[in-house]
Amino acid sequence: MNLFLVITGAAIGAPLRYLSDRAIQSRHDTIFPWGTFAVNVLGSLILGIITGAVTSGGASPQVQLAVGTGFCGALTTYSTFSYETLRLLEGDARFFAAATIVASIVAGLGSAFLGVTISQAIWS
After folding, report:
1. Roughly what angle, to the nearest 10 degrees, separates helices 78-90 and 94-123?
2. Domain extent for 72
């Protein structure tokens, strides 16, 4: 049953990542990877909300498996983040590579903490 929950969440998250990334990136005329950045920050926020909900008793561990592990695991993408950052470095876009790294880490962690805080405010 646990494997089914993870697979179900991933089956929704992976296509959503691809479609969101393409839609967001097509609206920006820059080499900064806005699509990957957006899905990673959104996934971190959702994961923070789910983590906070589970630790506060507002959601079950099964929800954490389906949404946290499956959906967020497939929605977010560390491999694409790494690839795009290396591509920027190879193209001598060092500023954008550094901005991608710093912004992704700060925004990702910040949104995860924000998500936990929101959940705890709701379910505590």
Report:
1. 160
2. 2-123
**Contact in structure between 108 and 41 (CB atoms under 8 Å):** yes
In angstroms, how far apart are the furthest CA atoms of the chain?
A: 49
27-67 pLDDT per residue, tens: 999 999 999 999 999 999 999 999 999 999 999 999 999 99
Rounded CA separation 108/85 (Å):
16
50 and 72 in contact (C-beta within 8 Å)? Answer: yes
Looking at the structure of the chain, the number of domains it has is: 1
pTM of the entire predicted model: 0.94
Among residues 48, 42, 45, the alpha carbon closest in space to that of 16 is found at: 42
